[in-house]
């Protein structure tokens, strides 16, 4: 059995850790309330943006535009993934779950370029041999729409220049305080299969009409698609911040609970060790008195 001194020292250390985790939980709770409100306010707009532009492109048959043309015939297509993680740990499986979407999915290190938002995700994919372009880690401190525009410009530029042939967005959807869903969506281009599915999901014959453009489609799509990309990136950033703080609050709550349980167990061990020491001293005193008699 450990000595009373060792037990007391360990209990004191765990109490200090418990105070830290409790403070971090409170901080995450406050941040979560702000981020949650922002995510709930912006989510309807960005969901509708994705739905509207997707349906619009699905109905735009036989349009040759560099931002929507599927490069199906190109061998060894390069995939670009905007990977949104956090800059800090102690958030449970938040970062590892989002990284697994890439490393455990259909994204080989040789044919994938990562656009990292968050140092934890960037460090994780680099260790597994993925190529990272840029570092947008500071964005996670307080995401603004201008940050999404900056990321979008880089990704769209690489797509137009042929550096990448597909654009994906990996982030964590904030469903509620407890549930956060790692999500991977394809931004561009839509394959013919994707478009056919979207058209078949239409609710009426009017939904399946071919889209007409005014002014002509090249100019219109050149404005709409970058706006679509930027909007989805910003929506993902806002949801990721809320998910991160929710995950950290849960992790710190669990850590605090575990620490309190360990403190209780160590308290029992300390009392038993103390009782054993007192019993031993009494036994020695009695034995000594008996020897004198």
| Record field, number of beta strands | 5
**In CATH, what is the homologous superfamily?**
ATP synthase, F1 complex, gamma subunit
| CATH fold label | Pyruvate Kinase, Chain: A, domain 1
Order of helices and strands: HEHEHEHEEHH
Please report the first level of CATH classification, the CATH class: Alpha Beta
Radius of gyration: 28 Å
Number of domains: 1
The poorly predicted ranges are none
What structural class should be given to the helix and strand makeup?
Answer: alpha/beta
Q: Which architecture name does CATH use? A: 3-Layer(aba) Sandwich
Through-space gap between termini: 34 Å
Give me the oligomer status: single chain
Spatial sequence of strands, sheet with the most strands: 3-2-1-4-5
């Amino acid at each position: 059995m450990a000595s009373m001194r060792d037990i007391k020292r360990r209990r004191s250390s765990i109490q200090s850790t418990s105070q830290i985790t409790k403070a971090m939980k409170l901080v995450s709770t406050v941040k979560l309330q702000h981020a949650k409100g922002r995510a709930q306010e912006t989510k309807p707009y960005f969901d509708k943006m994705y739905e509207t532009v997707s349906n619009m492109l699905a109905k735009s048959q036989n349009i040759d535009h560099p931002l929507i043309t599927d490069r199906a015939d190109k061998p060894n297509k390069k995939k670009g993934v905007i990977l949104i993680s956090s800059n800090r740990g102690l958030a449970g499986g938040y970062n590892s779950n989002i990284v697994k979407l890439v490393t455990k999915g259909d994204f080989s290190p040789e044919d994938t370029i990562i656009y990292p938002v968050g140092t934890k995700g960037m460090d994780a994919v680099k260790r597994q041999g993925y190529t990272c372009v840029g570092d947008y880690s500071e964005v996670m401190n307080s995401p603004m729409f201008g940050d999404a525009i900056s990321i979008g410009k880089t990704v769209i530029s690489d797509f137009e220049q042929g550096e990448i042939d597909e654009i994906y967005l990996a982030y964590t959807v904030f469903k509620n305080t407890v549930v956060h869903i790692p999500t991977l969506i394809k931004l561009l281009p839509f394959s013919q299969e994707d478009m056919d599915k979207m058209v078949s999901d239409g609710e009426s014959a009017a939904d399946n009409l071919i889209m007409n453009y005014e002014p002509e489609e090249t100019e219109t799509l050149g404005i709409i698609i970058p706006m679509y990309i930027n909007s989805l990136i910003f929506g993902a950033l806002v949801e990721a911040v809320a998910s991160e703080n929710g995950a950290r609050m849960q992790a710190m709550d669990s850590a605090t609970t575990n620490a309190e349980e360990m403190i209780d167990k160590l308290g029992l061990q300390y009392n038993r060790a103390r009782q054993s020491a007192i019993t031993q001293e009494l036994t020695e005193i009695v034995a000594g008195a008996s020897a004198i008699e």
